[in-house]
Write a structure and sequence with these properties.
mainly alpha; de novo design (two linked rop proteins); 4 helices
């Protein structure tokens, strides 16, 4: 990844996919019981929103070390969301096809993060 190709975090495909993930989580959690409004719904939405938000913030912090730190936060939010998805599925909250969509997007984002973290760690480029 060359710095001339990436002008903004919005150019990062991982950020774009993370936005899709947020929208999918919102769609899924709309189907949850109202009793989960301040529980699992809130937690899952915050975890999902944290992913593109921290990619954006980290990319603007001025250097590889800072960006890598924020990407590790993103990775943690992804793991948190994965756990919350397991809980929701076990409680039979939401439609199975929506669970599959969220899990698929989450897996894709996590793989992309691994690649991005590796590239940034092995690069001398400032993002």
């Amino acid at each position: 990844m060359k710095s001339g190709l990436i002008k903004s975090y919005k150019d990062l495909i991982v950020w774009q996919k993370a936005l899709q993930l947020v929208f999918a989580v919102y769609k899924l959690t709309e189907q949850f019981p109202d009793t989960e409004k301040f529980g699992l719904i809130s937690q899952m939405r915050r975890s999902a929103v944290s992913i593109p938000s921290n990619i954006a913030e980290g990319s603007r912090r001025g250097g590889r070390k800072e960006f890598n730190y924020f990407l590790s936060v993103v990775f943690s939010s992804g793991a948190e969301l994965k756990t919350q998805m397991e809980i929701a599925k076990s409680l039979s909250f939401g439609i199975n096809s929506e669970h599959l969509r969220v899990n698929s997007l989450l897996e894709e984002v996590m793989k992309m993060l691994n690649i991005l973290i590796s590239k940034i760690s092995n690069s001398s480029t400032t993002y």
